[in-house]
Every structure is written in structure tokens, then in C-alpha cells.
């Protein structure tokens, strides 16, 4: 799995203390790969053919959260945040390849119900994961202001 992201955070301290309401806006790009095998008959012989699945989820998101951030006179800071990350525009893709297969073998593999089911499961999983609201948690935030 390869994950890249960026985001911009804002905080509002309504009582001018440590408690705050916050929000973030960002973008993430998640890529993953896995392999499985498909059973079929090639040229009259049973075969197990590897299939490589490359999946990708790109999403813009917002993350409302609350938290606590204490700042000591020395500049030492300590806090935590909890909230949710809500996807706004997930874009998902799944590409299945058959490594080392010649075009005739590739066509035979893609025609099997095992291949079609594997591709459908990967498509469904990526679409579900891309649209899920997930927890946003920072258990301990430490820093120094100067």
C-alpha cells in the first residue's frame, strides 16, 4: 500500500482556553496491489494463472474534529484531537493484469467466471472503502512554540 496526502487545518478556541473546534480539508491518494490465481484450462490442460490487481482511491475530504491543546509558559505544547474524515469526491479504479500471459491466454483468463468474480470483488471493495467515513484521531500531540 502506498499513501500520499496533504491537508490544511484550522482551529477555533471558543473560550480562549485549551479546548478547540477544528477542521481540515485535504486530498489523499491510496494505491494498493495484490495477487490471486484463476483456475482454467489452457490448451486442454488445467492451469493456475496469476492475476495482479492494482487498486487506487483518490479522494478530497473534510475532517471536522474537537480537541484540547495546552500551551505552557515555556512554550511546550501537549494535546489530542478526535473527529471524522469524510470523503467528498472519491475516484476509484481497479486494473487487473495477467503477468507473463500472451494475448490469447489473457483473453481466455478474462473470460473465466473466477477472473470476473475477482475483478468485481476488487471493484466493490475499492468503491466501499473510498466512500467510507473513517475516524480521525490524534492520541498525543507534542510540540514547542517559540
The overall pLDDT average reads 92
Largest β sheet strand count, sense and barrel closure: 7 strands, antiparallel
Going by helix content, strand content and strand pairing, the class is alpha+beta
Regions with little confidence, pLDDT below 50 for 5+ residues: none
C-alpha geometry: rod-shaped
Strand content: over 45%
- Share in helix: 10-25%
How far apart are the termini? 37 Å
Let me know the number of strands. Answer: 7
User: What's the helix-strand series?
Assistant: EEEEEEHHE
Number of contiguous helices: 2
Radius of gyration: 23 Å
Break the fold down into its secondary structure elements and pairings.
Blueprint: E1 2-12, E2 19-42, E3 45-62, E4 65-71, E5 76-87, E6 91-97, H1 103-110, H2 113-131, E7 134-144
Antiparallel strand pairs: 1-2, 2-3, 2-4, 3-5, 3-6, 4-5, 5-7
Structure commentary:
This protein has helices at residues 103-110, 113-131; strands at residues 2-12, 19-42, 45-62, 65-71, 76-87, 91-97, 134-144. 18% of the residues lie in helices and 62% in strands. With 146 residues, the protein is of the alpha+beta class. The model has no long low-confidence stretch (mean pLDDT 92).
Supply database-style keywords:
146 residues, alpha+beta, 7-stranded antiparallel beta sheet, 2 helices, 7 strands, 18% helix
